[in-house]
Amino acid sequence: MKSRKQLEAQQRYKKEQEERQRIKNEELRLEMERRRREQQEKEEHEARIKKERQIREVELCRLHCERSTALLTLCTASVASWAIQQWQLKKFYWCMRCDGLPDPGHLPQLNAYRYRWIENSQNTEPCMERLLSRAPEFNQVLHDLNDLLENTHDIPMNQVQQLSQMQRELSKLLNQEIEAAVKSVLSDVERHLLPDETQLNVQTCSKLFTLALGTDTAKNSSLTLHDFPRLGVRLDLPQIVLTNAKPVVASFVWFKEGHYLEPPLINGVPSLPSILHPLTEDDPLYNLVPENMRAKQKEVPIDVDLVPVAQRGSPADDVKADILDLNSYLLVMGILELQLLQLPVQPRRFADWTVAYLEDGDAIKTHEFRAIFSESGAAREAEKAGKRGKNDDDDDPGDGKESNEELRKLISFKIKLPPTAFWLGCPRPVIYRKDSGTWKTKGVWDVRFFEEIGGPTVQFRLEEPAIVAFAQAKRLNLPLQGWTLVPSHMRSSIINSLVSKVPAEAAKGSNANETRGAGGGGAGGGGDEWSDEEGSDEEEGGGRGNGTAVVEEAADEPDEIEYDPEARSITLTLNGAIVSLDIEIQEHQVLLRRVRTSVIVNVQDLTNRAMNPFELIKSLRRRGLEISPSHEVSSAVEELAKNKSRAVENHLYRCLAILAASEKFSFLHSRWNQMAGDENFVLQYQKLENETMSPPALAQVSLDRTRLLPYNESSLSLEQENVKDVEPQFYADLLNALFESSPIELRNQILDPSPAFVDTIYTMLAATRPASTA
């Protein structure tokens, strides 16, 4: 039992312990209170700093956006005034010219010209000479009308529709004139035969079309092979055609331009991006520009698409009925019409008399033919032929061998493709179906592609005579391997000063752009196995030679082009997967300066020729090269980011155009762009200081701010997280970022741009979209 002293001591110890614990708890409470106050003060301080920074950034953003808006408004007003003036001058020229041709904007004159053409056709004897003599005048009239329809300005819509209908009617006049010339030849074949010859072989070339006629007028003729070496065409008919009672004439017409199935795109010029277009609600300058520069409602950005609405096929139809999607494919170098005609009864001559027998109203009859064959057997034989080699021509029906019996029942067509087009692989022959008004791949068999010294050749087989065109995918030259926008007079020094190279793993071409087979053995376009899915271009070829190698060689080439030092000039270089282009941009016009590619192509008629951006894009598209891909086309390329912000991209191009117009900046592609996210764009920039360009630096552009990054392109450790964590000085956009960091002299040049120069640069950048397609 404890004593009293022990109990008191124990109680005192317990009280002391409680007191010490109380003091410790109080100290801990006070420490926590102190820390809480410190944290609160820190948060309040940070909030105050953040609020002050936000206020400062809002003020800077307002100031920067007002500066950008003022420059944009100035340029827009000047360009709009110039466009109205040019339209008035063009109308005055069409009205006052004295060449006898109609004013394309005056419908009564076009009607009078059409009726005069028809009257002259009725009052004169049709012949090949008349066709060739009238074609140049017709070409000029059609060109003027197409030029008007592509930019109708203030013409009322009902009148535009009437002019469009007139364009179709005039286009059909050329077909009628060709039919009349063919009829004149077939009605009296003897005048077109060599002495003691029975085989007719007519070959005619012009700027608008090429024409070939072939037959054998002898009785019991066995001629099935028609060779037209001048046109590079060889046509082989099946033996069953010779069972016809009358000789059959093979008629081939290649419409290079002016065919009614290739109408002009109405208002194609204003559909190109321009600073004249009203701003949409998601644009950062929407609330600052005048009311007349705002879109009335949120508009979908216009994609440059030269495909008439009536000819576009839906994806569902494409899968079900083999309809060619003209949103994803180009029709290259015109349209071919292949017909089999019956040779009419020939006239007989007695002394000075010529007796002609008119049969069925003197009309040329068409020989109806459709091959009867086994589709599965033809597909197997075509597949075997493809496995033996794309350039193996042993199975040609003209060599007399007994292989490919099913394919021999089809019409064999071999043509040398013109070297003026970009044949980036085996083109896809397609057939026009008049009943549905669409282009289809079914009915084309055994497509083969031959690489030859003088240019490529394609061979295919048809079930029946048809209207044929060559289709080529728009995405074959995507993705871009890089791009640059530099002052033309500084281009050589900039290229030579670029010492930082992209790492090998970033510069390598993707699998989709590596060397692929160029041929199309197999079933070709039999119609049962063809699909338009991603990666289906392997039969078309994706390029001959690695596209990246072409770009690297281009970067090391010396620049020998002479530029006018007095002219405002910027060079836009687009390094595609197969084809690379140098495009010089001037006020209101562009010039194709250089083409670098591994394919055989001759574009001397396009290089160094002044055109507006629409003409350049249209000319290259007609030759099989897409430099202005729509968002639908670019989204089909796996290597490209799918959802890059269009609002950010369009405003970036405006800033680039204003800065580049000073000819003191150059801009280059950055390999970090695709990894920066959908809302961010990363690019390199250089500044001209003391007649030398500064080293390339990086800039990151987003919707609400622009950052000048303390990194460079050769930083191997740069990651997306590092880009986002950087917090440099605030700038509203790239224009103000480089403006604020420039000396006074350069600032004055930026604030006084050439509006026409700015608009042309912006149009080319926004049309080609290098920031999102590279």
Which features characterize this protein?
774 residues; nine-stranded antiparallel beta sheet; 36% helix; 23 strands; seven-stranded antiparallel beta sheet
Number of strands: 23
Q: Low-confidence parts lasting 5 or more residues at pLDDT below 50?
A: 298-320, 389-403, 498-558, 720-726
Structural class from helices and strands? alpha+beta
Distance between the termini: 94 Å
Q: Count of helices?
A: 18
Q: Please outline the major beta sheet.
A: 9 strands, antiparallel
Shape: elongated
Average pLDDT rating? 79
Percent range for β-strand residues: 15-25%
What does the radius of gyration come to? 35 Å
In terms of topology, how is this protein built?
Blueprint: H1 4-96, H2 107-123, H3 128-149, H4 157-187, E1 199-205, E2 209-216, E3 225-228, E4 233-236, E5 248-255, H5 268-271, H6 315-321, E6 329-342, E7 348-350, E8 353-355, H7 375-388, E9 411-416, E10 428-433, E11 438-440, E12 444-450, E13 457-462, E14 467-473, E15 482-487, H8 491-497, H9 504-507, H10 547-556, E16 570-575, E17 579-586, E18 589-597, H11 613-622, H12 631-634, H13 646-660, E19 665-669, E20 681-689, E21 692-693, E22 697-701, E23 706-709, H14 720-725, H15 734-740, H16 744-750, H17 755-768, H18 770-773
Antiparallel strand pairs: 1-2, 2-5, 3-4, 4-9, 5-6, 6-14, 7-8, 9-13, 10-11, 10-14, 12-13, 15-16, 15-19, 16-17, 17-18, 19-20, 20-21, 20-22, 22-23
Helix pairs in contact: 1-17, 2-4, 3-4, 13-17
